[in-house]
From TrEMBL:
Protein name, as recorded: Mitochondrial import inner membrane translocase subunit
Major location (coarse): mitochondrion
Domain Tim10-like: 15-74
InterPro entries: Mito_inner_translocase_sub, Tim10-like, Tim10-like_dom_sf
Organism classification: Eukaryota, Metazoa, Ecdysozoa, Arthropoda, Hexapoda
Family from the record: Belongs to the small Tim family.
Amino acid sequence: MAMSQMTIDQLDKDQIKSFSDFLLSYNKLSELCFLDCVNEFTGRTVSDKESSCSLNCMEKFLKMNQRVSQRFQEFQMISNENALAAAQKLGGK
């Protein structure tokens, strides 16, 4: 019973961490795109220029984030393969 409670607690912590990371990323995206795209505060509506700028900004941010994640995963796989090869080389001697 205690083991399952620890597992549930860890899952809750992981979910909270994931949600926190998502919110940080969303807030960063919102701040960057707002600062880059919104320049005029005289009207109540969002201009076409601001709207298209914010969409482009969001796309670039998400693509960059995806690309960085892919590169990080590739780097991790290479590191794991190198560590495995080194361990096998040491184990063989």
